[in-house]
Amino acid sequence: MKVLDWIVLSSFLTFVVVYGVWKTRGKKNLREYFLANKSTPWYTVTLSIMATQASAITFLSTPGLAYVDGMRFVQFYLGLPLAMIILSVTAVPIYHKLNVFTAYEFLEHRFDLKNRILGSTLFLIQRGLAAGFTIFAPALIISVLLGWDIRLTIIFIGLMVVVYTAIGGTDAVNKTHLLQMIIIMVGMFSSLFMIFRLLPADISLLDATHIAGKMGKLNAITFDLKERYNIWSGLIGGTFLALSYFGTDQSQVQRYLSGRSIAHSRMGLLANGIVKIPMQFIILYIGVMVFVFYQFVTPPMYFNSVETAQIKKSNYAAEYLAYENEYEKVHSEKQVHIREMLAAVRSDDDAVLEDTIIKIQSAKESENKIREKAINLIQKTNPGSDANDSNYIFLSFVINFLPTGLIGLVLAAILSASMSSTSAELNALASTSVIDIYKRLIKKDGTEQHYLFVSKLATVFWGCYAIAFALYANRLGSLIEAVNILGSLFYGTILGIFLIAFYLKKIGGTATFIAAIFAEIIIIACFFFTEIPYLWFNVIGCIVLIIAAYLINPWCHSRTV
Amino acid sequence: MGNDHLEDKNNSEEKPPFFSSWTHLYILVFSNLLILILLFYVFTKVFD
To answer: Is the pLDDT of residue A560 over 70?
Structure first.
């Protein structure tokens, strides 16, 4: 990074932190601290919801996923608009009417204390771990590619967030989300614009899209149930996941609970339902365009530059370099075929098109074989290294090809995304800890000042916990998939509890509680012992819970509403 | 929890901005989803 990049990056981040602290200092009570005094307009609610969901993992991992796997991951979000409608009709008016601070407070109104504690505990476990991920993931990738010390990077990101979140609470989170989303959007569109500028002069946007399509990357919609991401898992599993995430996860619920009225909360959710999918499409498209770019410039065989630097100093250096030369040769041959393919597309010559696609696929297979051998060498040098380098693709491209200044901007966008998610998580973890556990069970008769102080302390505690977790986390496969897999282990159960609460009035608290424990055991067993794609865990957990609760209910004596 | 009932305006009868009813807005969101699915399908097929 050059001086200009550092200036751009540090200016943005400093501004966000100072703005967050300055504009939101002086909270006087829990309502101001956790609900921003219910003063947030709908467009801020929308941006806050989007900023909470779009972590750095989204911007680092998603383009890499598209580079490797194409655009089918966009189907993951198809259920989101349906979930926004359902929540606007059901959850929003109920949460507002009951004047709750957390989603789990509602469970006590509906059932009993034990369901409230179960719901809030499941949330604290799941979100507590995820908060560590949202700091760890960008820190790992940035530290590898920029040579920053990973521990300092983790601590730096974590502390920045803790400062303004602890001081300003929900209001600070919302107001900084506004700025962060602006930085993220600017960074995103700037990257896309630059990728187009970097393509060869004779390759237009349409040409680039044709290349991506013919090479199998524009698989946005698929009806094949066997595919990991398809329209059915997106619409059904995705709806369940989105209902659970936006309806029962306090990190999202708190965003729209701060809406200044039911109408503003609803609008915030519904606007998210309109813009979220196009936004994800663009992020995936960025990854696909990076792929197209690398059809005309030889990409690294392996995108983790620390690992490749290591092997080039090892005894396998000569062998690795030989693979690199071979890779470049195959890549150059493939490039010729790609241009032939493009000429065939332009002249509408199907026979030549088919022939060139076969040649390109054959070249691609040769490339993959060489890459596999190279990765085996890397793993001989470092047995702990990950064969999957997709998380490094986008940032590697940014650092090596974007101009000075823009690198700083994109890094600011990535760090903004990390901070925005983390701040919402810490805010939610603190509110659940204080409202559902501390105030409800431990100290019931404190003053408002006492609870406010404990809330700030809780935010700091969870921030330190997330930093500590991030410092000791291990690498996983695709990070965005890891976070969503983790969520899917718990979301189905939590959603099932809330669906019973909202819609099945005859089922009581005890039946729900027992069924929830049972459903969670089933899901964990499915995860360890079956090959069921994780998106379906949300559906399975929810349905198992509801059926079990329905069957158990006649034998339970508990109050119902 | 929350003794201050400042949300006199927070009633489910409050209309959405730009639309005469919430149902119209739900239809818009749903229609937007259908259009996006269709566009993605066309996009996939055209460039496949």
So the answer is: no
Buried b (16+ CB within 10 A) or exposed e, A358-384: ebbeebbebbeebbebbbebbeebeee
Tokens of A391: 């998380």
- The answer to whether residues A92 and A269 touch, using CB atoms and an 8 Å cutoff, is yes
pTM given for the model:
0.89
Q: d(Cα A45, Cα B38) in Å, to the nearest integer?
A: 28
Residue A546's nearest CA partner among A502, A516, A510 is: A516
Q: Does A231 touch chain B (CB under 8 A)?
A: yes
Of A222, A261, A270, the CB nearest to B14: A261
Distance CA A335, CA A378 (A): 26
**Cross-strand bridge partners of residue A259:** A40
- Asked if A106 contacts A119 with a C-beta cutoff of 8 angstroms, the reply is no
**What is the per-residue pLDDT across A287-300, written as a single tens digit (0 to 9) for each?**
999 999 999 999 99
Beta bridge pairs of residue A40: A259
pLDDT at B3 over 70: no
Q: Which residues of chain A make contact with B26, given a CB cutoff of 8 A?
A: 85, 88-89, 270
Contacts of B11 (CB under 8 A, 6+ apart): A262
Q: Which of A326, A335, A347 is nearest to A293 (CA)?
A: A335
Q: Is the CB of B37 less than 8 angstroms away from the CB of A81?
A: no
Q: Is A403 left (phi over 0), alpha (psi -120 to 50) or beta?
A: beta
Residue A483 phi/psi, 5-degree rounding, is: -65, -40
Helices A535-552 and A238-248 sit at what angle, rounded to 10 degrees? 70
**Chain B partners within 8 Å of A101 (Cβ):** 1-2
Name the minimum distance, in Å, from the CA of B20 to any CA of chain A. Answer: 13
Contacts of A267 (CB under 8 A, 6+ apart): A42, A45, A46, B16, B17, B25
Question: Can you tell me the distance from the alpha carbon of A8 to that of B4, in angstroms, rounded to the nearest whole number?
Answer: 43
Angstrom distance (rounded) from CA A419 to CA A158: 8
The Cα A137–Cα A74 span in angstroms is 21
Region A82-100 average pLDDT: 95
Mean pLDDT over all residues of chain A?
Answer: 90
Q: Which of A75, A428, A463, A443 is nearest to A233 (CA)?
A: A75
Interface predicted TM-score (ipTM): 0.86
